[in-house]
Amino acid sequence: MPTFTRISSALSLAVLAAVFSPLASSQALPAGWQSVAGAQTIKAIKAAPRLPVSAASDDGATVRVTDAARVIAGGDDVIDIMETLGLGDRVFAAPESAVTEAGRKAPRHFLFNRTTGAEGVLSLDGTLFLGNSLRRHAKLSETLRATALPAVVVDDLQPAPQKIRKVAAVFGLATEGEALAKAVQQQLDEAAAIGKPLTKRARVIHVSATGGGGKPTVGGKDTAAAQLIRLAGGINIGDAANTGDYTALSNEGVVAAMPEVVLITRSDLALMGGEAGLWRNYPTLKQTPAGQANRVWVMPDVQLKIVGSQSGAGAIALAQAFKAFATKTP
């Protein structure tokens, strides 16, 4: 039976709000830890969809989009881009784990997994499904389109500027999308210019409370975080371990990887239970160079775990942190 759960109870939504609240994201960090947050964030514009439009979906379909009043969004990356285009109020349903503001404030929330059925999505009563993963949403979108619900997939495994152009095109905002894509590309180029000359590259373990069936994981080579780490001049240990997505790593594997920096997002830190939860979930992390130096960097979710409009700001901040590390660390 397909798995689909709508989060409707006030208690569930209250828990989500507490974990992802602005207050939680601004709380002071433990002594010695560092906040790495890009100040050069892209400001949102105010645009209205220009419909109808024929949009190209990454699964090869051409989709006629006529109504974007109630968008069922498959992930935070497409929601983030919608927000920056001024379309955040059109996010009608979002994953229950959403960290974007529009995702958290969406009227409806749901649990998604690989076996999600079309009937569950249709029960949300949206006017457009915007998926973000060919692996999870290609077959689903095909089924939805057969029921007359427009469904477009913009796959997460592509550079931010390319993704921005595609999401904007879904709403008939190609001009606005091009301007936004160019602005983000300039930021990414700036980050690369900082990181490329570094002769000492920090070994980074990006840890997450999600992605492993509820178990703590390490970011692999296909994650948004890995893209940023590489671009900014660091070494993602998940690349060396040849893990694709978020994968559990053994205690021995954590030690053997010898990370020099622990990288985590604000929401993951909250979900783990703060500092004590981090060390509890990764008990051998203290034995690594990063743990011994208490070198933990904390970033905003939208600047690390999402390939979207804020990727450039996050990349610059991370590159600057890597440069400072290379300068100060023998």
How would the blueprint of this fold be written?
Layout: E1 5-7, H1 10-19, H2 22-25, E2 34-35, E3 53-56, E4 62-65, E5 71-73, H3 76-84, E6 91-95, H4 101-105, E7 108-111, H5 118-122, E8 128-131, H6 134-146, E9 151-153, H7 160-170, H8 174-195, E10 203-212, E11 215-219, H9 224-232, E12 235-236, H10 237-240, E13 246-247, H11 251-257, E14 261-265, H12 266-272, H13 274-281, H14 289-292, E15 296-299, H15 301-304, H16 311-328
Parallel strand pairs: 2-15, 5-6, 5-8, 6-7, 8-9, 10-12, 10-14, 14-15
Antiparallel strand pairs: 1-7, 3-4, 10-11, 11-13
Helix pairs in contact: 7-8, 8-16, 9-16, 12-13
Care to give the gist of this entry?
With 330 residues, this protein is of the alpha/beta class.
Describe what you observe in this structure.
Mean pLDDT is 90; it is low at 1-25. The radius of gyration is 20 Å and the shape is globular. The protein has helices at 10-19, 22-25, 76-84, 101-105, 118-122, 134-146, 160-170, 174-195, 224-232, 237-240, 251-257, 266-272, 274-281, 289-292, 301-304, 311-328; strands spanning 5-7, 34-35, 53-56, 62-65, 71-73, 91-95, 108-111, 128-131, 151-153, 203-212, 215-219, 235-236, 246-247, 261-265, 296-299. Helix 4 links the parallel strand 6 (91-95) and strand 7 (108-111). Strands 2, 10, 11, 12, 13, 14 and 15 form a 7-stranded mixed sheet that branches. A 6-stranded mixed sheet has the order 1-7-6-5-8-9, with helices on both faces. A two-stranded antiparallel ribbon has the order 3-4. The protein is built from 16 helices and 15 strands. Helix content is 42%, strand content 18%. The protein has 2 domains: 34-38 and 186-328, 3-Layer(aba) Sandwich (Rossmann fold), CATH 3.40.50.1980; 48-172, Nitrogenase molybdenum iron protein domain (Rossmann fold). The chain is α/β, with parallel strands linked by helices and 330 residues long.
